[in-house]
Amino acid sequence: MSVRALWIITHEKGESVAVQFSRRYPTVEHRAKCLAGSRYVTVPEDSTVLQLLFTELGLSDPVKSYMALRDDCLHQQHSPALELHLEGPGGGVLWPMLAISQGSLILACLPLVEAPPEFRPPLASLFSVSQGLTLLAGLQAFLLGSKGKPDSEGLASRLSMMPFILLQVCPLGTPLDTPQPGATSTPAVPTPAGTQKQPAWKTGLYRGRAVVNVALTEMVRSMQYGNQSRQDLWDVYGTVTCKCEVEGVLPNVTVTLTLPPNGSPLLDVQVHPCVSSLDASILTAMSVEDCDSSAFSGPYKFPFSPPLQPFRLCSYTSQVPVPPVLGAYQLKEEDNQLCLTVSLKLHESVKNVFEYCEAHLPFFNRNQIGHVDIKVTSGQLEVSKEKNLLVWVIGQKFPKTREVSLEGAVTFSGQLPGPRDPLCTDLTAYIKLYFRVPDMTLSGSCVDQHLVQVYSSAKPRIVTSRELLSSEYYIWNSTDTAPVSSGHMML
Question: Among residues 40, 54, 168, 392, which one has the fewest Cβ atoms lying within 10 Å of its Cβ?
Fold first, then answer.
């Protein structure tokens, strides 16, 4: 797998847009030209790529023109790969353009697809896509630093190191490893002389007590409409991240992911490039196809030689029968006030232990909240400082009935207008849930510390954890027409 070009972009809410760093690889571009022949599409200037990328991501002008292929609610984006349609003589399409963002930082790259341009293989079968996303995620972690968010001074310092970092992790356009967050420009430990050759992508060795940390995180997204004419949607996205502090030039580690006997097979599995071997059937199960009982259902073994820094070992999706929290929301306008009725029910398969659980009820396109007369059966209700949001703090546990409810009315008497949102006008309102459940996954997958094997001179301490998080968890007002979901969670 190789990368034709890479970009690092900063912006402030679509404004002050700038390409902070870009790198093109002529040798990879020559290979792309030979593979494509007469269908070859050259990579345009940075300014053109920037404009096309921001338009596709919906970050361009606030009054940008409507494009049905991109903006229609019925259009479902099933993949992380974008298409950039070039204008002018020749035209053409750049695909797959991979892009990830956090805050004001956007990273994008154009991997080389070693297939005829008229034939697009499934994304899950393209090693270049998984390696490209891994490269971008590693560079993002490096640029954000330990704070996990961009800051001008730290970002400028790390951007100045990008030429050296890419020389190490992506020489001549071929990714070998991802950079370590907070990495310096010199190896931390000199390479010792020995019989085992130090790989070029590993710039140092670990010295100290052997510890292997494996964390499994699943994020669940849901769109619930409370309407028989519209089907509720939900999906699950899981990641396994590792930090292996093990001595040796190329230590061998095997992490095994298991499912319960009645668990659904893992789909859309993508792995880090350091994984040395894998059962082919693990990579062939995809959510875009009909999944049957014959699909591989584990155990999922991932043998690898770990890099020095924390990294994402694998990611996957899972088809679960029900969402963890079922909700109903009814909102009506009567006598210059809004009457609310909300009910939430925790499914019996979910542990009734939360680190936190909150329901946010935003009221956009109105004046500030003036008076609240609402009763809740559990937890407490708060009004945000801006007086345009009700925060229902349910707490760390549902009642024994596993059901909570909210009922009452809200009036708006503030003089200042609140924020605007085209998706939340009049009665087109929603509830957004935020929760975190420790020591649980919705798919039932787990990493048993006794099944983590480390082939090293020192016996390591094994630490494993798992958790379930909410992501874009919406419950729409059933008395009005809610927007259609934009599709399944992207890998």
Answer: 40
| Residue 177 confidence (pLDDT) above 50 | yes
- Please name which of 365, 323, 373, 362 lies closest in space to residue 346, comparing C-alpha atoms: 323
Give the tens place of pLDDT for each residue, 317-332: 998 989 999 999 999 9
Strands of the 105-111 sheet, one edge to the other: 15-24, 3-12, 105-111, 93-102, 81-85
DSSP notation for 117-159:
TT----GGG-HHHHHHHHHHHHHHHHHHTTTTS--HHHHHHHH
| Strands annotated E in 384-444 | 389-393, 403-417, 430-438
Instruction: Tell me the CA end-to-end span of the chain in Å, nearest whole number.
Output: 19
Helix ranges restricted to H, 330-382: none
User: Which pair of tokens denotes residue 374?
Assistant: 């609402």
Spatial contact of 449 and 371, defined as CB atoms under 8 Å apart: no
Could you please state the CATH topology (level 3) that the domain comprising 325-438 is classified under.
Immunoglobulin-like (2.60.40)
Delimiting residues of CATH 2.60.40.1170 domain(s) in the chain: 211-321+444-468, 325-438
Cβ atoms of 340 and 356 within 8 Å: the answer is no
211-321+444-468: CATH topology is Immunoglobulin-like (2.60.40)
Are the C-beta atoms of 404 and 327 separated by less than 8 Å?
no
What's the whole-model pTM score? 0.62
CA distances to 358, 365, 421, 425, 476 from 369, rounded to whole Å, are 19, 12, 16, 15, 20
